Amino acid sequence: MTKRALVVVDIQNDYFPAGKWPLSGIEAAADNAARLIASARAAGDLVIHIRHEFATDDAPFFTPGSEGAQVHPKARNLAGEHVALKHQVNAFRGTDLKETLDRNGVTEVVICGAMSHMCIDAAARAASDFGYQVTVVHDACATRDLEFDGVHAPAAEVHAAFMAALGFAYATLRSTDEYLDASKIQPKVA
């Protein structure tokens, strides 16, 4: 029998409009993540929150101990829900994430959060490499515009490119509605 965990990656204050590193579409992504969290809780699935802090005070965002590094209220953990603190892009590196998943017998990992092109990509690839069945809920993820070698890539294109790559070999991709419909659990709307 499949045992599932929802891994909510870096939905933190600095990624929102008043923060130091705002992402395109973060409000909608966080709203969808909140629906996923409610569904996972209702199903009795393990919910794990990942919170990123850089190691030094001169970080561009997620400064240690800052309000910006705190989990946003839309995705806040309940008492008893595990929060893994990371200092690297990959949520498995230097954290107890894999140990927590394995201790709880998890075989399926559902991932949402930020940023699509960094921490979501890294977590999904690592989870797949560790042998978990991986689903990325694409509309519960957000990113930002990027630039490389004089080429500007809008956030929507960055997101699409990374989701396409993950969907090719690392994860099943679902929208929030598709995922919730497939899981047959609909959270109550407040």
TrEMBL record:
Gene3D superfamilies for the chain: Isochorismatase-like
Q: Where is the Isochorismatase-like domain?
A: 5-148
Query: Is RNA-binding given among the entry's keywords?
Result: no
Claim: Ligase is one of the keywords in the record: no
Please, which domain of life does this record's source organism belong to?
Answer: Bacteria
GO molecular function annotation: hydrolase activity
What are the EC numbers? 3.-.-.-
Q: Record's Pfam families?
A: Isochorismatase (PF00857)
Question: What class does this enzyme belong to in the EC scheme?
Answer: hydrolase
Keywords noted in UniProt: Hydrolase
Indicate what this protein is called per its UniProt record.
Uncharacterized isochorismatase family protein YddQ
Q: Cite the source lineage.
A: Bacteria, Pseudomonadati, Pseudomonadota, Alphaproteobacteria, Hyphomicrobiales
